[in-house]
Amino acid sequence: RITIQDTGVGIPKEILDKIFDPYFTTKQEGSGLGLAICHSIINKHGGHLIVHSTPGQGTIFTLYLPAAPSEKSMHEKIDDKKDAPAAKAARIMVMDDEKMLRDVAVAQLAVLGHEAIPVIDGEQAINRYQELLDGGTPVDIVIMDLTIPGGMGGQEAAEKLLQIDPAAKIIVSSGYSNDPAMANYKEYGFCAAIAKPFDLQQLSSVITSVL
Fold this sequence. Notes:
36% of the residues lie in helices and 20% in strands. By secondary structure, the chain is an alpha/beta fold. The protein folds into 2 domains: 63 residues, 2-Layer Sandwich (Heat Shock Protein 90), CATH 3.30.565.10; 124 residues, Response regulator (Rossmann fold, 3-Layer(aba) Sandwich), CATH 3.40.50. The strands form 2 sheets. The protein has a 5-stranded parallel beta sheet, sandwiched between helices. Strand 4, helix 3 and strand 5 form a beta-alpha-beta unit. Helix 4 packs parallel to helix 5. The radius of gyration is 20 Å and the shape is globular.
């Protein structure tokens, strides 16, 4: 168990049950993804994140994680990974306007043995994709954020990329899992979809399915 406590202004009771929702924020500047990502990562590790807050006094976050597996089970997992076929290394472009999410995705791709090319929006993605294609080092997969505030999002960018390269493999990514482009991604020209925030295993699986 890990407890983190502050002595700030606290969180009003009426929004306490929303703080882990993707894109929910009370700040003028912020993505609203920080706590959502923390909550998702902890859940995927079999843990729990609990919050208690008193307005005017502060907030307490309590993190519970399961005990480490036995040495035997750890060796079994390692052996299973050794037996699994190695994934093909790929050059993967990641489009996201949030620097934190780009950095996380780049780090995840590096762990999986892939080369990552981070871009901010659709316009930058199209220009960089064309440059690499013309230079003889084409991108294998593009992972595109569906919504880019103030910029070209994934849906429009995917249409333009497919005009440049009809064989382009594009994965749509969004925190809004009920968006039509996520639910019916093939109708919008995408090869696959992955909901944000995603973990290493989910990222690996969707990449393998597209390669």
